[in-house]
Amino acid sequence: MARRVLRPYLKLLAIVISEAWATWNQLGAAAPGVRMQLGRGARAIAVSDFIKDQITRRFERVGGCEVVFEYGRPVLVFASGDLKLRLGKVEPGIVPAPRNERQLRIWGQEDAALFTLPGMPSGTWARCGYVLDSTETAVESIQVLCEMNGEHKWDIVVPVPWSVTKTPTPLTTTVVPPAKIASAIPQAGTRPTLASSD
């Protein structure tokens, strides 16, 4: 049932997350020294803010979906509240332990009371986010996950735009001996010549 509810929005969710990750990469290109000093927590906060910006701009006028804010973070509400989606980094197989009452309510799916949709209680919480590769430098996949009381209930793997997973071409370095460099520089009063093609 969740797949049917989310199907019209999966491509847009992938765009939101890929654009947020692309913004993180642009930060790295603009200030690589600064970004190298940032840890996982700073990256998570930055990408979360970039996702928040993308959600606000891209889902603001999308029919069948409402953007609400809980504790300053966007929540996508689908099917008149039957499915609520939080966004951020996800780690399949790892269900974060609740640290406060709000997280405990979500963890236990306490809002999911009545079955208004087949197989999915109304008010079900799920997480949509990016899964990083082993080096944590690229998005490996985008997934929607639903857990209840620490147990995995269902997931949807969202097709990832190729630009998010594409790894940059590695730079190759060749050491050139100083004598060869000096011979390639024209001496004063001489005219440079083209190397022969044979």
Describe the overall structure:
It is a single chain. By secondary structure, this protein is of the alpha+beta class. The chain has one domain (2-168). It has seven helices and six strands. The chain has helices spanning 2-6, 10-30, 32-37, 40-58, 101-107, 162-165, 178-184; strands at 65-70, 73-78, 83-89, 124-132, 139-148, 151-158. Strands 1-2-3-4-5-6 form a six-stranded mixed β-sheet. Residues 1-22 form the signal peptide. Keywords: Signal.
The global form is: globular
Low-confidence segments, given as residue ranges, are 114-118, 165-176, 192-198
Structural category is alpha+beta
Radius of gyration: 24 Å
SSE ordering: HHHHEEEHEEEHH
Oligomer: single chain
Keywords: Signal
Signal peptide: 1-22
Task: Give the helix/strand layout.
Elements lengths: L1 H5 L3 H21 L1 H6 L2 H19 L6 E6 L2 E6 L4 E7 L11 H7 L16 E9 L6 E10 L2 E8 L3 H4 L12 H7 L14
Helix pairs in contact: 2-4
Keywords: Signal
Relevant terms:
198 residues; alpha+beta; disordered C terminus; 7 helices; six-stranded mixed sheet; signal; 6 strands
At a glance:
The chain is of the alpha+beta class and 198 residues long.
